[in-house]
Structure formats: structure tokens, C-alpha cells
């Protein structure tokens, strides 16, 4: 989520790398560049995005999220976010399965598996 207007637009941003090889996503609305590792904004030190640990193994994407209440207090309804991300990933054919891993290390019940 871009912190400028709390807009969910970074999935439409351009991903690039800086002179040191650090990956970033550029907000398509506000032209701010956010580092994918720590979320820092390279062209506005007052802006920052949340980042989460993620990994891909054999077509399975796993994302480690904080407790739902903590996540909801910052970005909104976590159940919507999980369903939206899952629907978009399956729609684009980018993953066979998405696992949302809670702080306890267990897979969240919102997980869906491709047929």
C-alpha cells in the first residue's frame, strides 16, 4: 500500500533496481520508489511501506504476516487482502499455491490451492 494516499496501487508499479542492485517498486501514482527489502523510500525520507518476509519454492509462495489485529490496525482488513492477493495471483497464473504463514508458523485458513 502506498502511504501517500493509503492507496493499494503498488502491484501496478514498476519494479527496478538502483545503482547498487537493490530492488524497488515505484508507485504509479506518486512516483515514489520503495525498497523491497526494508520499505524505505529513496526519494522521500518521510515515506515508508510495510514489507513482509516471503519465499517461493516450486511454485508455492509463502508470506509471513503479523497477527491479523496488528495488520488490520495498519492496512485494513487482512481477510480481504489475502483473498485479493490469492485471486490476483491465480488470475495471472503466477503461482500454483499461496501460503499465508501466521506468526505461530502455521498456514492461515484462508489458503486456497489451485485445481
From TrEMBL:
UniProt xrefs under InterPro entries: NasD-like, Rieske-like_NirD, Rieske_2Fe-2S, Rieske_2Fe-2S_sf
Domain Rieske: 1-63
GO biological process: nitrate assimilation
Source species, domain of life: Eukaryota
Keywords, sorted A to Z: 2Fe-2S, Heme, Iron, Iron-sulfur, Metal-binding, Nitrate assimilation, Oxidoreductase
Keyword Iron-sulfur in annotation: yes
SUPFAM superfamilies on file: ISP domain (SSF50022)
GO molecular function, one term: nitrite reductase [NAD(P)H] activity
NCBIfam families, per the entry: nirD_assim_sml
Protein name: Rieske domain-containing protein
Taxonomic lineage from the root: Eukaryota, Fungi, Dikarya, Basidiomycota, Agaricomycotina
Amino acid at each position: 500500500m502506498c502511504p501517500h494516499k493509503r492507496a493499494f496501487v503498488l502491484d501496478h508499479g514498476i519494479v527496478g533496481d538502483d545503482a547498487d542492485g537493490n530492488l524497488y517498486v515505484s508507485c504509479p501514482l506518486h512516483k515514489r520508489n520503495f525498497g523491497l527489502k526494508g520499505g524505505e523510500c529513496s526519494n522521500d525520507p518521510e515515506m515508508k511501506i510495510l514489507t513482509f518476509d516471503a519465499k517461493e519454492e516450486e511454485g508455492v509462495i509463502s508470506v509471513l504476516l503479523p497477527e491479523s489485529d496488528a495488520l488490520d490496525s495498519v492496512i485494513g482488513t487482512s481477510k480481504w487482502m489475502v483473498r485479493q492477493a490469492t485471486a490476483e495471483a491465480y488470475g495471472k497464473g503466477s503461482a500454483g499455491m499461496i501460503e499465508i504463514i501466521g506468526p505461530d508458523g502455521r498456514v492461515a485458513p484462508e489458503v486456497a490451492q489451485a485445481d
